[in-house]
Amino acid sequence: MAQYRDSRILLQVPAKDDDRKEAVSLRQSAELFPETDRRIYAMISAHDGIKAREIASALGEDRTAINRLLVSSALMREMCYQDRDYRWHALIRQQVPHEGLYGFSGWYGLVSEFLSLSEDDWLNQLCDGCRRIGRNLNDTRGLIHSFRDCGETIRMLFGDLAQLSDLSFEPWELAFEFRLNRARMIRIYADVMIVAPGRVFVLEFKMKNKIDPDEVLQAAKYVPYLELIFGQTHEILPALVLTGSSDLFELVPIGKTDALLPVCSGNMLFNVLNEYMGFLD
Q: Which of 10, 179, 187, 281 has the fewest CB atoms nearer than 10 Å to its CB?
């Protein structure tokens, strides 16, 4: 039986200067890449191929300067490519469905596709996908068991949502074992991403029953980079899921900042979604 604990997540800027160290680390992507680079990247990722002159025209910038930036920017080098017709493409598009997620995920598909699979069929597809993306499947630390544990928890989540809400979650996107690790400045490792309308829930799974501050930081670590990839249309919402616990739902400080991150057990995961979607209000 699903349980509900009411609370509200407040993501705030640290109030004191000496508390800013961890907050700064969570916003690294905004500092790594200049505003112009990020504007151009957003334009590229919103199109299915766009030429430099079209970018320059849309931004009101000099074409030569845009060409120079496209070939020199670390962001474009790592997250974009140019085809034979000189059109620029993003590795992951900012459009639903997010073309490109499959290429970096052990398993990617719609929630409806996930729920239609048996546990064994899904696990086999996940393992095949992990090999495809170069994910190490060394099972000495119970990796396959952790995959099953994660899959069971997500399946339970959508069972709870079916009972507790009228959300049409079947067309949502779902990615397991997302690994963007071939770039130098942008590296993302996410256990599960649930891409709902306007929101991306990024879930870090641990088969534990106690909260570790380092794992709270780990769960929030990739937020700035995912904000860059998904763009302004989606809010990035991280959470830590401790599947060794039960009936747990807490808001935990991220390092020494005033920002709070939800930590929950598997049977309380639906509370994380409710915080932002309000289906139990």
A: 281
